[in-house]
Amino acid sequence: MIATKELLEKYARLAVRTGINLQKGQKVIINAELACAEFARMCAKAAYEAGAAGVEMDWTDEESARLRYLNSTEEYLTTIPQWYVDKADYQDDQDFAYLYIDSDDPDAFAGVPAERIAMAQTARRKAIKRHGDNVSCNRVSWSIVALPTEKWAKKVFPGCTAEEAMDRLYDAIFKAVRLYEEDPVKAWEDHLAKLQERAKWLTEQKFDALRVTTGLGTDLTVGLADDHIWGLGGEERSNGAHQPFVANMPTEEVFTAPHNKKINGVVKSSMPLNYNGQLIDGMSFTFENGKVVDFDATLGKDVLSHLLDTDAGARSLGEVALVPCKSPIYESGIFFYNTLFDENASCHLALGSCYPTCIKNGAALTNEDVDALGGNDSAIHVDFMFGTDDLTVTGLRGDEEIPVFVKGNWA
């Protein structure tokens, strides 16, 4: 068995000490599926060993959620109780750190009407928008790590027995998060330093836009927000706490905010997207002046349609991220059916809200200020992949054209 107790405990310590970078005396919320209870308790133990004042578990269960989506009244699905909002606000105000253990079954909600999931998710996001803003502005410390479940593993490795599939998925995850390194914490420090060099160079270029083309038919010009800056998976609290953290483990990307009125052309997805337990594939979008004016998908078009109808901001972009084909996740050749991993194998865009931290002093700006600079606002932020091994990315600055990516890798 690949996932020994020793390795899992090492993984839990990495999630706590590098992921959320727990500070002594801080409190923690661990969000996990019931199937991940043993590992969640390891994370709680690691948090207490790191000096946590307290740890709370926030359990989820996809099978129960499926029953709710299929059978609840529309009123119930769209009514968010005040206690739920108050809980989120209280946790933020009390400086909780958030550790999310991702273990989604890619087919969890197959067959559930897309509009029912969309209405429930939209109501939830709108109700706790303050918390969502705190996360996107890095006012709280948060991190997402992944743990295999049998259903997820069998989806990724369908030709294997359940035990073989679990071993292979554990191995792939452990490699992606650098857990096999003698000192994973140091390995992450070195990795983030390299990403920081890329982000610094891109910020210094002050590009007006990026033009991206691929052999699949993508030809898109993405204007960049005024005063944009490039970020990476290694974040830092924006509230003066001087607490660095790693929001996504793994992470291979550098990213920034597009201008929500300056996106034009066509982009075609290069990988399927697992969104809320439903697959969308063969996506294409046509943009005019920052908005999706036409779209299609070979699979899950109804799910995509409801996604784009979430609100006005859902039809624009909140993120453009660059990931080379030389990333270890791309080179593994594994499609994970999980955005946490798949977005780190490919350049990607995100429909919906931007990260205000990708705009100079963005965490201190109002939503109206961010919008005036071109940053997008929405209740959603959904990544989809467009990168290929023939991708070209060109930085546009005035009359200059500067190569950024050639044949899927850094120029």
Describe the structure.
The protein contains 14 helices and 21 strands. With 411 residues, the chain is α+β, with helices and mostly antiparallel strands. The strands form 5 sheets. It has an 8-stranded antiparallel sheet with strand order 15-14-11-6-5-19-20-21, with helices on one face. Strands 7-10-16-17-18 form a 5-stranded antiparallel sheet, covered by helices on one side. It has a 4-stranded parallel sheet with strand order 2-1-3-4, sandwiched between helices. A hairpin with a 2-residue loop joins strand 20 (400-406) and strand 21. The longest helix is centred in the middle third of the chain and has 22 residues, at 184-205.
What's the main sheet like?
Answer: 8 strands, antiparallel
Termini gap: 41 Å
Percent of residues in beta strands? Answer: 25-35%
**Lateral arrangement of strands in the main beta sheet:** 15-14-11-6-5-19-20-21
Inertia-based shape: globular
Q: Tally of extended strands? A: 21
Count of helix runs? 14
Mean pLDDT value: 95
Supply Rg: 20 Å
Oligomer: single chain
Percent in helix: 25-40%
Structural class determined from secondary elements: alpha+beta
Report the uncertain regions: none
Topology:
Blueprint: H1 5-19, E1 27-33, H2 37-49, E2 54-60, H3 62-71, H4 74-78, H5 82-93, E3 96-102, H6 114-127, H7 129-136, E4 142-146, H8 150-156, H9 162-176, H10 184-205, E5 209-213, E6 219-224, E7 231-232, E8 234-236, E9 244-246, E10 254-256, E11 258-268, E12 273-275, E13 278-280, E14 284-288, E15 291-296, H11 301-308, E16 317-322, H12 328-332, H13 339-342, E17 348-352, H14 367-372, E18 381-385, E19 392-397, E20 400-406, E21 409-410
Parallel strand pairs: 1-2, 1-3, 3-4
Antiparallel strand pairs: 5-6, 5-19, 6-11, 7-10, 8-9, 10-16, 11-14, 12-13, 14-15, 16-17, 17-18, 19-20, 20-21
